[in-house]
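Predict both folds.
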Amino acid sequence: MVPATRNALIYDADCGFCTTSASWISARLASGSTILPSHDLDLDAHGLTLDDVMTAAYWIDDSGTAHRGSVGIALALRNSSAPWSWAGAVMAVPPVSWLAAAVYPIVAKNRHRLPGATAACAIDTDGPDEA
């Protein structure tokens, strides 16, 4: 079990779409940043639950704060090489941030229908608003 960590993207490794997406980001992350499957992480150390990490990706920043969903993805991209770091910066600025916040839950709730998905990708659609 990996203890508390910093500059890391936490993802649901049971989901093929999530694993493919995390691998894509991993290939672009800056030195010192990493991706971690949620089942390898000490969730309590970050104040996360199994339900949290089964319904959204999280970026753990320098201070150990967990950022959920589209905000987490934007921060992961900001910690990547250009031009992806620029895309992450743009994702943090309204109105793009509003659009990202609206689109992320739709993608998360339908991830079982996306390329690389498996039956394990399906999530409870009655969960938190931003999946």
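Second protein follows, with its predicted structure tokens after the sequence.
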Amino acid sequence: MTAPFQPLVDPHGRTVRDLRISVTDRCNFRCTYCMPEEGMRWLPRQEVLTFEEILRVARVCVERFGFDGIRITGGEPTVRAQLPVLIEKLATLRIPATGQPVDLAMTTNGATLGLLAHDLRRAGLSRLNISCDTLRPERFEAMTRRAQLDRVLDGIHAAIDAGFDPVKVNIVTIRGVNDDEVVDFATFGRQLGVQPRFIEFMPLDADERWSMDQVLPSDEVVAAINAVYPLEAVAHGPEPASRYRYLDGQGEIGVIASVTHPFCGDCDRIRITAEGQLRNCLFAVRETDLRAVLRGGGTDDDLAGAISGDVARKWAGHSIGKVHFIRPSRSMSQIGG
């Protein structure tokens, strides 16, 4: 008999209901703000959680704690073989409070999405975020160390064709690198009917060269777009993006101000790395080994206890830019978005 669900509340009164699952640490890009060009040591296959293990963790979060959202991340999730099979399994989960399917989303770089978009949609994936930091081919190659902008743009079109709505495009904005394309992305979004999400550059780059003067504040992004396409703010919940819609009705944008306007007070997320480490914050410096529970004969009660115990240590916020900020030892690709 399944135990009744009990909302998972952290020490600061925030109800945790969103699970981010990294399905691989591997990626077919080498983005400068995420991974080094060479020298990455990939996890051996046997250390990565199986689909069955991922499903078990997700099921416990949904059935025991009432989670209503799951996002698949990487690395690049589409390099994981048979990904639609995992999506189909996760799509069977139902939110205890409503009986409705969980909100199942994925973040991808889009390079192989042209081959998978329709299969993922049929498997039950609800939403897609596609990362694309520049619309200029030479700059794209410099930022990702891959000459594949055309494939990413094809992936965006494939997502639209498969019926994902809205399709969100994630842009990590870096001052002096791609800050001159903010309005270009707004125009791109309006023309295609996709939603740009401008994300402030965070200190998770593998080369550890991040500095505050590279951060393009989201207020500047909004001001630049508003000067060309007038905007108005949209009320939103605990999601990380502050949303703005165009006054002429031609869609909306989002900005994720992780550095200049942290939204830690509304955080409802936890993350599982590809090898099964639970992180209660993107910038956490401690982890809980769920793989050890899964492979050590632990029961669902044991798994739920490990998850709730880690959330009980969740801190108030990440403190980026403050003297006592501690940079995580992992880069973004090793954590999962």
